[in-house]
Every structure is written in structure tokens, then in C-alpha cells.
Amino acid sequence: MQWIKRNILFPNKRHPREMGEHGICSILTYLIYCKYVSSSTQNQALNTIR
Q: What CA–CA distance (Å, rounded) separates 21 from 35?
């Protein structure tokens, strides 16, 4: 549930369907370069968007 919440709050409360590919890439890029998360954490975030 936390990942779903984060994925909606990060892009100014926009649903992932509304963000498009660029928005989803920006979430994942933020996690990689700003939060330094592991690849398994990145996969969790991506799976919640799917």
C-alpha cells in the first residue's frame, strides 16, 4: 500500500495512468538517483504502477 501511495503522491497526486511513460520514468529515476534504492525496491515500485 505504501508504494501505491508514493506513486500517486510523487507526481502531484496524479494517477500513473495519467502520467504516461515519461512520468513513470521520472518516478523510477528519482528512486534510483535520489533515494538510492536497490533493484528489488525499484521492481516493487514498478509492479505497483503496472
A: 20
